[in-house]
Amino acid sequence: MGIIPKALKALTLDLQRLPGIGPKSARRIAYYMFTLPQSRLEFLSQTIKELQQSVTVCQFCRLLSDTNPCEICGDSARNPLEICVVEDNMDVFAIEKAGTYKGVYFVLGGILSPAKGIGIDDIAISALQKRVNDVLKQKNNGTVEIILALSPSTEGQTTSLYIKELFAENEKVSVTRFAIGISVGSDLDYVDSFTLQEAMKGRIKVE
Fold first, then answer.
1. High-pLDDT (> 70) share of the chain, %
2. What are the Cα distances from residue 206, in Å, to 128, 198, 203?
3. Is the separation of the CB atoms in 68 and 56 below 8 Å?
4. Per residue in 24-45, pLDDT tens?
5. 84 near 103, Cβ under 8 Å?
């Protein structure tokens, strides 16, 4: 005889499929949901059902949004010649939170990972190329800067290199990347070698 009711067990297993949710967290959420009033559960269920109907994908940057184009792409104060390339939507939120970037974005929807079977056709590389070409047509005398804000992992580095090579022969496109540095207050003894190497490569002149 099972200790956990079948319905709670099934919900727990489904919740575990969500990113960042382990068995204990999934079980805790499932039991909490059982304590909610029926009206609240029905509202939650309806919200989930309407998710894909109410949320759209921006035709320019592929960011999930309420509108198409999204608020960022539709903002005339943003610089369309600066395109920050990120892996997913959460990266956009993180950069926007800093409040300093005034360009636009492009969401790849993943990074190249041969080990996981993720190739060029599985992420939006061709859509990025089209986006850049469209901007260049609109801004005849402009130069597009592609800012790579991808993970410093091997997969992220591979993806960045591929994008760099893709636009290497286009004189109107420059490819840069986020500097990887040492956090303020960090003790060098605790900084990994990769971060130290990248910080050294990305060093700047002391003013």
1. 92
2. 35, 17, 9
3. yes
4. 999 999 999 999 999 999 999 9
5. yes
Of 54 and 180, which is predicted with more confidence?
A: 54
Q: Which two tokens stand for residue 52?
A: 């894909």
Q: What are the strands of the beta sheet with 173-177, ordered from one edge? A: 103-107, 79-86, 144-148, 173-177
**3-state secondary structure (DSSP) of residue 202:** coil
- Residue 64: strand pairing partners: 57
| Whether 104 and 173 share a structural domain | yes
> Looking at the structure, do residues 120 and 28 belong to the same domain, yes or no?
no
82 contacts 139 by C-beta, under 8 angstroms: no
- For the purposes of burial, counting CB atoms within 10 Å of the CB of 53, is it exposed (0-12), middle (13-18) or buried (19 or more)? exposed
Q: Mean of the pLDDT values across residues 140-161?
A: 90
How far is 33 from 41, CA to CA, in rounded Å?
Answer: 7
Tell me which residue range forms the domain holding 20: 6-54
What token pair was written down for 36?
């909610």
Question: Do 160 and 99 fall within a single domain?
Answer: yes
Same domain, 79 and 153: yes
Tell me the H-state helices in 6-124: 6-16, 23-35, 38-49, 51-54, 89-98
